[in-house]
Fold this sequence. Notes:
This protein is mainly alpha-helical. The chain has helices at about 5-15, 20-30, 45-50, 60-70, 75-95, 125-155, 165-180, and strands spanning about 190, 200, 205, 210-215. The termini are far apart.
Amino acid sequence: xxxxxxxxxxxxxxxxxxxxxxxxxxxxxxxxxxxxxxxxxxxxxxxxxxxxxxxxxxxxxxxxxxxxxxxxxxxxxxxxxxxxxxxxxxxxxxxxxxxxxxxxxxxxxxxxxxxxxxxxxxxxxxxxxxxxxxxxxxxxxxxxxxxxxxxxxxxxxxxxxxxxxxxxxxxxxxxxxxxxxxxxxxxxxxxxxxxxxxxxxxxxxxxxxxxxxxxxxxxxxxx
Length: 223
Protein backbone atom coordinates (compact mmCIF):
# COMPACT_ATOMS: atom_id res chain seq x y z
CA UNK A 1 0.00 0.00 0.00
CA UNK A 2 0.96 3.63 -0.34
CA UNK A 3 3.19 5.08 2.42
CA UNK A 4 0.39 7.59 3.02
CA UNK A 5 -1.88 4.81 4.24
CA UNK A 6 0.88 3.29 6.33
CA UNK A 7 1.40 6.68 7.98
CA UNK A 8 -2.29 6.83 8.85
CA UNK A 9 -2.14 3.39 10.45
CA UNK A 10 0.89 4.57 12.42
CA UNK A 11 -1.06 7.57 13.62
CA UNK A 12 -3.83 5.31 14.97
CA UNK A 13 -1.31 3.39 17.06
CA UNK A 14 0.46 6.58 18.15
CA UNK A 15 -2.81 8.00 19.42
CA UNK A 16 -3.78 4.85 21.31
CA UNK A 17 -2.06 6.14 24.44
CA UNK A 18 -1.32 9.47 26.06
CA UNK A 19 1.81 10.21 24.05
CA UNK A 20 3.12 13.69 23.37
CA UNK A 21 3.75 15.01 19.87
CA UNK A 22 7.39 13.96 19.82
CA UNK A 23 6.51 10.39 20.83
CA UNK A 24 3.66 10.18 18.33
CA UNK A 25 5.98 11.25 15.55
CA UNK A 26 8.53 8.62 16.54
CA UNK A 27 5.88 5.90 16.42
CA UNK A 28 4.58 7.15 13.07
CA UNK A 29 8.12 7.13 11.73
CA UNK A 30 8.30 3.36 12.29
CA UNK A 31 5.27 2.94 10.03
CA UNK A 32 7.15 4.59 7.16
CA UNK A 33 10.68 3.29 7.74
CA UNK A 34 10.26 -0.17 6.12
CA UNK A 35 9.63 1.54 2.78
CA UNK A 36 13.16 2.95 2.83
CA UNK A 37 14.14 -0.08 0.77
CA UNK A 38 12.01 1.39 -2.02
CA UNK A 39 14.34 4.38 -2.31
CA UNK A 40 15.56 3.15 -5.71
CA UNK A 41 12.18 3.77 -7.36
CA UNK A 42 13.94 5.79 -10.07
CA UNK A 43 15.63 2.60 -11.30
CA UNK A 44 12.99 -0.12 -11.91
CA UNK A 45 15.48 -2.99 -12.02
CA UNK A 46 17.27 -1.92 -8.83
CA UNK A 47 13.97 -1.16 -7.13
CA UNK A 48 12.65 -4.64 -7.91
CA UNK A 49 15.75 -6.24 -6.41
CA UNK A 50 15.92 -4.09 -3.26
CA UNK A 51 12.31 -3.36 -2.33
CA UNK A 52 11.03 -5.61 0.45
CA UNK A 53 14.57 -6.45 1.57
CA UNK A 54 16.58 -4.33 4.01
CA UNK A 55 13.53 -2.44 5.27
CA UNK A 56 10.89 -5.15 5.30
CA UNK A 57 12.42 -7.54 7.82
CA UNK A 58 12.18 -8.10 11.55
CA UNK A 59 15.78 -7.14 12.28
CA UNK A 60 15.65 -3.66 10.77
CA UNK A 61 12.24 -3.03 12.34
CA UNK A 62 13.46 -3.99 15.82
CA UNK A 63 16.68 -2.01 15.47
CA UNK A 64 14.82 1.09 14.38
CA UNK A 65 12.25 0.76 17.17
CA UNK A 66 15.05 0.30 19.70
CA UNK A 67 16.95 3.32 18.38
CA UNK A 68 13.90 5.57 18.50
CA UNK A 69 12.99 4.33 21.98
CA UNK A 70 16.49 5.11 23.26
CA UNK A 71 16.34 8.51 21.54
CA UNK A 72 13.31 9.39 23.64
CA UNK A 73 13.72 10.31 27.30
CA UNK A 74 10.70 8.53 28.77
CA UNK A 75 8.40 5.56 28.19
CA UNK A 76 11.12 3.79 26.27
CA UNK A 77 9.67 0.31 26.70
CA UNK A 78 6.28 1.44 25.44
CA UNK A 79 7.83 3.13 22.44
CA UNK A 80 9.93 0.06 21.70
CA UNK A 81 6.91 -2.24 21.74
CA UNK A 82 4.62 0.07 19.78
CA UNK A 83 7.34 1.00 17.32
CA UNK A 84 8.11 -2.64 16.61
CA UNK A 85 4.41 -3.48 16.32
CA UNK A 86 3.83 -0.57 13.94
CA UNK A 87 6.73 -1.54 11.69
CA UNK A 88 5.66 -5.20 11.61
CA UNK A 89 2.07 -4.19 10.85
CA UNK A 90 3.32 -2.24 7.84
CA UNK A 91 4.96 -5.38 6.46
CA UNK A 92 1.89 -7.54 7.18
CA UNK A 93 -0.37 -5.03 5.42
CA UNK A 94 1.94 -5.12 2.41
CA UNK A 95 1.77 -8.90 2.40
CA UNK A 96 -2.04 -9.07 2.26
CA UNK A 97 -2.59 -6.13 -0.13
CA UNK A 98 0.18 -6.50 -2.72
CA UNK A 99 0.45 -9.03 -5.50
CA UNK A 100 0.92 -12.42 -3.74
CA UNK A 101 3.97 -13.17 -5.89
CA UNK A 102 5.81 -10.17 -4.42
CA UNK A 103 8.43 -11.53 -2.07
CA UNK A 104 8.32 -10.93 1.68
CA UNK A 105 11.44 -12.01 3.56
CA UNK A 106 10.90 -11.50 7.29
CA UNK A 107 14.33 -12.76 8.32
CA UNK A 108 16.49 -11.19 5.58
CA UNK A 109 19.52 -11.18 5.39
CA UNK A 110 20.00 -14.11 7.81
CA UNK A 111 17.43 -16.25 5.99
CA UNK A 112 16.18 -15.26 2.55
CA UNK A 113 13.10 -17.48 2.63
CA UNK A 114 10.19 -15.90 0.78
CA UNK A 115 6.95 -15.80 2.79
CA UNK A 116 4.82 -14.40 -0.06
CA UNK A 117 1.31 -15.84 0.13
CA UNK A 118 1.51 -16.96 -3.49
CA UNK A 119 4.01 -19.63 -2.42
CA UNK A 120 1.44 -21.23 -0.12
CA UNK A 121 -1.94 -20.54 -1.73
CA UNK A 122 -2.56 -21.78 -5.27
CA UNK A 123 -5.93 -20.03 -5.77
CA UNK A 124 -5.89 -18.32 -9.23
CA UNK A 125 -7.97 -15.40 -7.96
CA UNK A 126 -5.67 -14.59 -5.03
CA UNK A 127 -3.92 -11.67 -6.76
CA UNK A 128 -7.22 -9.99 -7.68
CA UNK A 129 -8.60 -10.60 -4.20
CA UNK A 130 -5.58 -9.08 -2.44
CA UNK A 131 -4.95 -6.11 -4.71
CA UNK A 132 -8.54 -5.06 -5.33
CA UNK A 133 -10.76 -6.48 -2.58
CA UNK A 134 -8.52 -6.51 0.50
CA UNK A 135 -6.65 -3.34 -0.40
CA UNK A 136 -9.83 -1.40 -1.22
CA UNK A 137 -11.49 -2.51 2.02
CA UNK A 138 -8.43 -1.49 4.04
CA UNK A 139 -8.29 1.89 2.32
CA UNK A 140 -11.90 2.58 3.31
CA UNK A 141 -11.24 1.45 6.89
CA UNK A 142 -8.09 3.57 7.18
CA UNK A 143 -9.78 6.70 5.84
CA UNK A 144 -12.71 6.11 8.19
CA UNK A 145 -10.27 5.73 11.06
CA UNK A 146 -8.65 9.04 10.19
CA UNK A 147 -12.03 10.76 10.32
CA UNK A 148 -12.78 9.11 13.68
CA UNK A 149 -9.38 10.16 15.04
CA UNK A 150 -10.05 13.76 14.03
CA UNK A 151 -13.46 13.72 15.72
CA UNK A 152 -12.03 12.29 18.95
CA UNK A 153 -8.64 13.97 19.17
CA UNK A 154 -8.87 16.93 16.79
CA UNK A 155 -5.79 15.82 14.86
CA UNK A 156 -4.76 13.53 12.02
CA UNK A 157 -1.65 11.88 10.58
CA UNK A 158 -0.68 15.26 9.07
CA UNK A 159 0.75 16.26 12.43
CA UNK A 160 3.72 14.09 11.48
CA UNK A 161 4.70 16.93 9.12
CA UNK A 162 3.30 19.95 10.98
CA UNK A 163 0.61 20.50 13.58
CA UNK A 164 -0.25 23.82 11.93
CA UNK A 165 -0.63 22.16 8.55
CA UNK A 166 -2.81 19.51 10.18
CA UNK A 167 -5.13 22.09 11.72
CA UNK A 168 -5.23 24.27 8.61
CA UNK A 169 -6.12 21.51 6.14
CA UNK A 170 -8.54 19.63 8.37
CA UNK A 171 -10.35 22.86 9.29
CA UNK A 172 -10.56 23.81 5.61
CA UNK A 173 -12.22 20.44 4.86
CA UNK A 174 -14.47 20.15 7.92
CA UNK A 175 -15.48 23.68 8.95
CA UNK A 176 -17.64 24.48 5.87
CA UNK A 177 -19.96 21.67 6.94
CA UNK A 178 -19.95 22.34 10.68
CA UNK A 179 -19.35 26.02 11.44
CA UNK A 180 -20.16 29.56 10.37
CA UNK A 181 -17.97 32.62 10.12
CA UNK A 182 -18.34 34.54 13.38
CA UNK A 183 -18.04 37.82 11.50
CA UNK A 184 -20.46 37.50 8.58
CA UNK A 185 -22.28 34.20 9.10
CA UNK A 186 -21.06 32.56 5.89
CA UNK A 187 -19.61 29.07 5.91
CA UNK A 188 -16.34 29.01 7.80
CA UNK A 189 -13.04 27.83 6.31
CA UNK A 190 -10.48 28.72 8.98
CA UNK A 191 -9.98 29.02 12.70
CA UNK A 192 -8.10 32.06 13.98
CA UNK A 193 -4.84 31.06 15.66
CA UNK A 194 -5.17 33.74 18.33
CA UNK A 195 -8.58 32.96 19.80
CA UNK A 196 -10.03 29.99 17.86
CA UNK A 197 -12.87 31.94 16.27
CA UNK A 198 -14.11 30.45 13.01
CA UNK A 199 -13.98 32.70 9.95
CA UNK A 200 -14.60 32.48 6.23
CA UNK A 201 -12.04 33.01 3.49
CA UNK A 202 -12.84 36.73 3.39
CA UNK A 203 -12.32 37.35 7.09
CA UNK A 204 -9.34 35.05 7.64
CA UNK A 205 -5.86 35.32 6.20
CA UNK A 206 -3.38 32.44 6.09
CA UNK A 207 0.19 33.45 6.90
CA UNK A 208 3.36 31.89 5.42
CA UNK A 209 3.96 30.16 8.78
CA UNK A 210 0.47 28.53 8.45
CA UNK A 211 -1.13 30.56 11.22
CA UNK A 212 -4.44 32.28 10.51
CA UNK A 213 -4.98 35.95 11.29
CA UNK A 214 -8.14 38.03 11.06
CA UNK A 215 -8.27 39.88 7.77
CA UNK A 216 -8.33 43.68 8.16
CA UNK A 217 -11.70 45.31 7.83
CA UNK A 218 -12.42 46.95 4.44
CA UNK A 219 -10.95 50.45 4.34
CA UNK A 220 -8.63 49.88 7.28
CA UNK A 221 -4.86 50.18 6.94
CA UNK A 222 -2.42 47.57 8.12
CA UNK A 223 0.71 48.68 9.93
